[in-house]
């Protein structure tokens, strides 16, 4: 696994699909992931720390994890099949138990970006699509 | 608190805002809540049990609750201020602890509808807007 960071988010208002770029923390390889507009706006808003009058869905998810005495520890982008990326949330409960939950990368990043949760990508994905 | 059920969901494809109707289980009073399209589509899809190739945000939220050994027990619509409804998720952990999390009604219902989680509305809200 290689640590990456969210390098760029490109939002085209007229499109339903947006693009985020993840880049190696200790290298130059980067790759794009196409995500939906709702998730792109959520990432952008949380990245900028823009508050909303009511909790949006990703804020609700963060609040649920916290209220259940758990913490999002890291995000794994662990697979790529037919141009679809697969991710996992790694969540640690205060009782020490760690659980992994299947997620789209967009939800995982929207959730993690507000708290600088580290993102890791499987080597074979970077070898495949990183440039 | 009065138990209500999701009676109707009206989706207008050309609009960003959609409407759901909640109705008393043991009475005739009902009221509408205006919600966003993303949440309306999520409710509609989960109501119909339509699977998606990848977990959408509300499915992710359900999975996180389950993986953390907890269960969504009920939804409370507990306040109405300036035409905005306020809701709470009541989540019970397997250790017996119950937590409440502030939510928009749309997220709460999208989350609860797949598992027939009961929805309760404060009396003063029904008295105010129920007809």
What can you see in these coordinates?
With 131 residues, chain A is of the alpha+beta class. The first copy, chain A, has four helices and seven strands. Chain A has helices spanning 37-47, 57-67, 105-112, 123-129, and strands spanning 2-10, 17-24, 30-36, 70-81, 84-93, 98-103, 119-121. Chain A has a seven-stranded mixed beta sheet with strand order 3-2-1-7-4-5-6. The first copy, chain A, is globular and about 40 Å long. At the A-B interface, helix 2, strand 5 and strand 6 of A face helix 2, strand 5 and strand 6 of B.
Q: Biggest interface and its residues per chain?
A: A-B, 28 and 28 residues
Radius of gyration of chain A in whole Å, from Cα? 15 Å
- Uncertain segments of chain A: none
The termini of chain A sit apart by 17 Å
The strand line-up of the biggest sheet of chain A is 3-2-1-7-4-5-6
Sheet-strand content of chain A, in percent, reads: 35-45%
- Helical segment count of chain A: 4
* Averaged pLDDT of chain A: 95
Q: Give the oligomer, counting copies of the same chain as homo and different chains as hetero.
A: homodimer
Order of helices and strands of chain A: EEEHHEEEHEH
Q: From the helix content, strand content and strand pairing of chain A, which structural class follows?
A: alpha+beta
Shape assignment of chain A:
globular
The biggest beta sheet of chain A reads: 7 strands, mixed
Q: Helicity of chain A, in percent?
A: 25-40%
Count every beta strand of chain A, where a strand is a DSSP E run of 2 or more residues.
Answer: 7
